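Subgroup meeting minutes
Present: P.N., E.W., G.H.
Scribe: E.W.

1. P.N. recapped why we're keeping a running log of single-chain structure predictions: easier to compare across weeks, and new members can see raw inputs and outputs side by side.
2. G.H. added today's entry (515 aa).
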Amino acid sequence: MNFKQEIKKLEEKKAALQKEELIEKQHQKGKLSAIERIDLLLDPESFVELDPFVESRFEAFGMSQKKVPGDAVITGFGKISGRQVYVYSQDFSKIGGSLGEMSGKKIVKIMELARKTGCPLIGIIDSGGARIQEGIASLDGYADIFKNMVKSSGVVPQISIVVGPSAGGASYSPGLSDFVFMVEGISQMYITGPEVIKAVSGEEISFEQLGGADVHNRKSGCAHFLFKNEADCFSAVKKLLSYLPQNNLEDPPFEKSFFSEFFERENYNLLKIVPEKEEKGYDMKAVIQEIFDKNTFFEIQAHFALNVITGLARLNGHVVGVVANQTKFLAGTLDIDSSDKIARFVRFCDAFNIPLINLVDTPGYLPGKEQEHQGIIRHGAKVLYAYAEAAVPKISLILRKAYGGAYIALASRLLGYDKVIAWPSSQIAVMGPKQAARIIFKREIAESDNPKKTEKEKIEQLREIFLNPYEAAKMGQVDLIIHPKDTRNILIKCLESLLNKREQRIPRKHGNIPL
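Output recorded in log:
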């Protein structure tokens, strides 16, 4: 072995030791390395790395920076369950995973390839934000990334996995994604960190309290999934992708369970789950489990706006988006947060050809000064816009109550629902019978010799005349009134009758959703 070969061998050994040292630093923080995350996500030996030799070439303010191979991000493509995806994974062990000119270009190249080939894009985010040493070149890198994310929106699914800090400009990549995954203890997203907040307002707050995984899943609604460790997180990403098409030109993957035919019989369990008394709450998730294919419901934003449930499921093997009122919380009313949750989910499903099924049991929108002052009109209008715009098959099932504006948003045929189905016990009206009687028959009740008796009679009268679903059916606003035991069978038949639905859209640049 000559001298040059000896030197090269020593350099390779030194590089390997440095790499092991950097990975160990990640492990000490309870985090995986950038390449370990890719290996955990993708099928074995399917990953092909692109641009591994790219280095930042920018020097600013008289400062030269150490050249880092790959420039703090690993990019490439591979497969998940045999389906092609494009992926980038930021490497916090190198320059804090910060974004520079060349790392930005690497990410944009992957985004463009994902869009051109019609493949999902997955970003694994672990970054301190823009690289200060590179000045506005790093900020321009973010601008290019954001522009390409907007171009890809509604074309290919975009998923962000936040497994470290996502600070400053870096936090807008998750913000523009379709779905955001976070892990307890290691994930944070924030625009300005605790030090800046303290300097400006004097308030002291930790990174976790400011933008931790729990905060964004339960309070802000900026994240969709919360996990205790990275292994569970990456496993859930794979599961989510199993429900999604590769792009907007494909249909979701059909996957009929081997045992599905055994569950297409009459089901009387729904009668046990949903109480006859309208005042009593129940767990809508139990209803979902009885209606859709066994163990296929995959909830989205499970910790946010608990009065509404959103998620993906299969019905006789077909992927559907489920929106359901959860009567256990706020009686299933719609409020600001639940409106945003529904509208965002509906628009995603419409973009990727996923039919929508609503399970409706709601007294309407949540009343109150706080909701009005914070813009319930604007937020509620998002739900109306999303459903009216959606061209995928839309089916609404009314289990008990469908009152007021919530009826319009979730069940009105004239808003664009293809099928509206009701149980015989359902109530469809502007408001509940008690409130309606007190308004319509206010004078008669007040002048009655026995106001309580008169009020009770008027309530029953309204219940029979106006709340009865057969009245809505006579007007053609309810297509089917079914026995609860037949719910699954009827939904399957209605869905399959609509799978070839084609709806002509009005030519325009785009609408103006009330954001």
